[in-house]
Amino acid sequence: MIKCLSKAKDKVKNFVVENSVAFRRASIGAGATALVVGSSLVSFATDGATGGSAAATATTILQDSVKDISGQVTTFIGNVAPSCFVVFGLILTVSVGIKFVRKFMK
Q: CA geometry: angle at 95 spanning 92 and 101, to 5°?
């Protein structure tokens, strides 16, 4: 019986060691989710006297923030994309040039 429990203990220990990164990520995600849910419940609980307007206000704020974030991301991509294309073109040109020179050096 004790050998059986010892083997089970070893199997559990090996499983935990092999999946320690996944356990850490899951616990961090669960903690973050609990914080988000807890803070949203508190904000709705404090505004309980107004009825359904808290949900409507939260929805409006969320929509406005998503629109703002999407606008900022679009602007960022528009500003960064030309530079990225230039760098990518230089890398491509240099790599093709090196292959071309190596081909003729042989």
A: 135
Contacts of 43 (CB under 8 A, 6+ apart): 54, 58
Report whether 47 contacts 54 (CB < 8 A).
yes
Indicate the pTM of the whole model: 0.38
Three-state DSSP class for residue 47: coil
Please give the DSSP secondary-structure letter assigned to residue 106: -
Is 44 within 8 Å of 55 (Cβ atoms)? yes
Q: Tell me which DSSP letter residue 4 carries.
A: H
Residue whose pair of structure tokens reads 């206000």 in the numeric block = 57
7-25 pLDDT tens trace: 777 877 777 777 777 777 7
